[in-house]
Design goal:
Distance between the termini: 125 Å
Helix content: 55-70%
Largest sheet: none
């Protein structure tokens, strides 16, 4: 039994409904957070008593400034502790890496010509060729053909050598 596919218009309609519901949830969540903030502030920070003369109000302002300074000092101290802890964590991470060592992946065999290897190492700017065969001299083999006349006439060779022998003996 084959199931019918959902049409694209139906899918888009359902998707828009889901997005609408999600947007409503997000808005409700924002309202709840705002209400929680207001309730906390009302409970922990009552509205200041503004009744009284000028000296009482200046005294109240001085107390507020002292409280703000105290909170700022605590915040600064806490930030310093957090930064110190973060630095220590980074140092420990480096120590762990040093102790464990970095695992090097197994090398793979790569067929690469000397030219492409130099190009990879030096970059494409350098034009160095390692085609060693092009630098070699071309040597042509000369086939020595011995004359058959010299081989064939052995008596003449002997006579020539005899004449030389006579030259050395006469001197």
């Amino acid at each position: 039994m084959s199931e019918k596919k959902m049409t694209s218009s139906r899918r888009h309609h359902l998707k828009s409904l889901i997005l609408q519901i999600a947007m409503n949830w997000i808005e409700q969540e924002k309202k709840d957070v705002e209400a929680a903030k207001e309730a906390y502030m009302a409970e922990h920070c009552p509205a200041p008593d503004m009744s009284g003369d000028q000296t009482a109000l200046t005294e109240f302002c001085k107390k507020l400034h002292a409280a703000i300074d105290k909170v700022d000092e605590e915040r600064y101290d806490i930030e310093a502790k957090v930064q110190k802890a973060d630095k220590e964590i980074e140092e420990l991470k480096i120590k762990v890496v040093d102790l464990r060592g970095v695992k090097k992946p197994a090398l793979k065999k790569v067929r690469m010509s000397a030219d492409s290897m130099l190009q990879a190492l030096l970059g494409s700017k350098h034009k160095v060729t390692m085609d060693l065969r092009s630098n070699l001299k071309q040597v042509k083999k000369e086939v020595k053909e011995e004359t058959t006349e010299a081989v064939g006439d052995w008596r003449k060779n002997i006579e020539d050598k005899a004449d030389r022998k006579k030259m050395f003996e006469s001197s």
